[in-house]
Amino acid sequence: MSLLNKLHAVQLDNSELQSQLVVRQLGNRRRDLLIDWQHRHDNMARALIRRQRVLITNSQIDRPADLQQLYDIYDKQTHEIASYCRGSFLPAISTNKVRSRSTLIYWI
After folding, report:
1. Are the CB atoms for 77 and 93 separated by under 8 Å?
2. Distance between CA atoms of 35 and 79, rounded to whole angstroms?
3. Which of 4, 88, 98, 104 is the most buried (most CB within 10 A)?
4. Are 100 and 66 a contacting pair, CB within 8 Å?
5. Could you tell me where the beta strands, DSSP code E, fall in 14-101?
């Protein structure tokens, strides 16, 4: 009987470990999906920004200072991300501030 109890305890431990593994795998899958979504979103944002720049440049419209500042920060961050992906350096985390016409925009 004691051997049967030990077997049951081992099976319970095994079931608990399997459930923890499933929960961990689910968390990893959610993280992977979020990262994939973020990459798709970033690619779309880059395409939109490129198209807007071309339209503004071709239309010979003067960029407002706050828009130019946003473009400059975007270019800097894009360059930092590309350098980081190549392994050139680790970017410093800083808070960027840009004053829009009516709001102050913060992002990391």
Report:
1. no
2. 20
3. 98
4. yes
5. 96-99
Distance of alpha carbon 103 from alpha carbon 23, whole angstroms: 41
DSSP string, 62-73: PPPHHHHHHHHH
Whose tokens are 């795998």? That residue is 25
Alpha carbon distance 17, 6 (integer Å): 16
- How many residues can be counted in the chain? 108
Rounded to the nearest angstrom, the gap between the alpha carbon of residue 97 and the centroid of all alpha carbons in its chain is 19
Q: What is the DSSP string of 9-20?
A: HHHHHHHHHHHH
Contact criterion met (CB below 8 Å) for 97 and 107: no
* pLDDT tens, residue order, the chain (108 aa): 788 899 999 999 999 999 999 999 999 999 999 999 999 998 999 899 999 989 998 999 888 899 899 889 988 988 888 887 777 665 555 555 555 555 545 444
